[in-house]
Please model this.
Amino acid sequence: MEDQIKEPQELNEEQQAPVEILDREQKNARQRFIKQIRKAFVIFDPENRGAVPVEEIRFIVHTLELSPTEAQLNEFIQSICEDEMIEIQYEKLEASLLPILEQGKWPKASEELLLQAFKTIETTLNQMQADAEEDDEIEQKDEGGDAESRSSTASTNVRGPSMKKSKPAPPLTGYLSVEKLTELMTMHGEPFKQTELEDFLKNVPSEDGIVEYSKLATLLANE
Model:
């Protein structure tokens, strides 16, 4: 007896409903992501040319509230930009960013992670300040001391920085100055553009130029 090829059974209405809903949700999500990419792109394409300089890609990624590591971002840019390429077309960038958004890659940092980062920043700044104050104290002693004290200090310096005991940093306060935040955002890592910096600082909850960074972490995590 010849094997009979069974025709695939059609889905009944109850089976079709979930499939159709899922398909519709996926299409809606894709359209939403495309709108987000377009909205971020036009910020850096005010003349509506459909292309932006390659160096703007990282700012578009951050505008989409994606949080890749520096290595991930550099790898992404290299993967979509050919050698000596100075501009990227919208269509190519959309096609490259869409899967990242759909797959939920490079999610925003959590509130807990942001808070820990701010604590690390304050700890580092406090230790730098403590070390600077200690250096000033040593310098003042050198200037005001006698030859014996200067000789003793010079002997201590010969032992090198590895032998130096750092002055303990003050305890964490939970606060950073707006001035210090501005310095960090413009002088370290990938610097913010002036317009980005102004937009960011407008939303920073501060009082008398001081930021309670737990509130800032909450704000950034829930934007």
